[in-house]
UniProtKB/TrEMBL annotation:
GO terms for molecular function: GTP binding; GTPase activity; metal ion binding; structural constituent of cytoskeleton. Keywords: GTP-binding, Metal-binding, Microtubule, Nucleotide-binding. It comes from Aphanomyces stellatus. This is Tubulin beta chain. Residues 47-234 form the Tubulin/FtsZ GTPase domain.
Length: 234
């Protein structure tokens, strides 16, 4: 089968990733405990692309969750599909990157990257025919952009012939969290140009517009935006 390894990094990447697994589990008929409750054989036909089959017929996402602070991980674990993930695949630090690309790429992130790569190798080795990697992250923060691009370049070194696809949330001036977003994004884009095969640029402003105009939502939340992204991803 053509397996994919899914990686989610930083607060934004983990929140989109958590939503993505809710959507994809629903499509495959997998419940929050990992058991299959679908009604069509088609749902199981390509299930190996995203899931490993564990003992007792349970399906476990081939997902790696990384962040430089434990907060987002805790909320993913406490979410509706939190018990679906392998506990070993949560890799996090304690310090945070403070929206600083260099912290994610050169200091804090560099210290944690080997632990992440160990989990990546373990997941890749258990695949019959690894097709590639997909990563969800933002380009405006510190972890998703700095550590995310560091991980992409490391994976590129180790698996040069595998597809590297990213879902990158790009900063936009109207929907901005921090003042340093343009710097983080510029530094990340250079890395993505060098090391990624496909980059899906997700623009919060455009997503808001779709929620307003097409879905007729008066006050869209980040949850609504994430759901929209996941509909496109799955």
């Amino acid at each position: 089968m053509r397996e994919l390894v899914h990686i989610q990094g930083g607060q934004c990447g983990n929140q989109i990733g958590a939503k993505f697994w809710e959507v994809i589990s629903d499509e495959h008929g997998v419940d929050p405990t990992g058991s299959y409750h679908g009604d069509s054989d088609l749902q199981l036909e390509r299930i190996n692309v995203y899931y490993n089959e564990a003992t007792g017929g349970r399906y476990v996402p081939r997902a790696i969750l990384m962040d430089l602070e434990p907060g987002t991980m805790d909320s993913v674990r406490a979410g509706p599909y939190g018990q679906l993930f392998r506990p070993d695949n949560f890799v996090f630090g304690q310090t945070g990157a403070g929206n600083n690309w260099a912290k994610g790429h050169y200091t804090e992130g560099a210290e944690l990257i080997d632990s992440v790569l160990d989990v990546v190798r373990k997941e890749a080795e258990s695949c019959d025919c690894l097709q590639g990697f997909q990563i969800t992250h933002s380009l405006g923060g510190g972890t998703g952009s700095g550590m995310g691009t560091l991980l992409i370049s490391k994976i590129r070194e180790e698996y040069p012939d595998r597809i590297m696809c990213t879902y990158s949330v790009c900063p936009s001036p109207k929907v901005s969290d921090t003042v340093v977003e343009p710097y983080n994004a510029t530094l990340s884009v250079h890395q993505l140009v060098e090391n990624a095969d496909e980059v899906m640029c997700l623009d919060n402003e455009a997503l808001y517009d779709i929620c307003f105009r097409t879905l007729k939502l008066t006050t869209p939340t980040y949850g609504d935006l994430n759901h929209l992204v996941c509909a496109a991803m799955s």
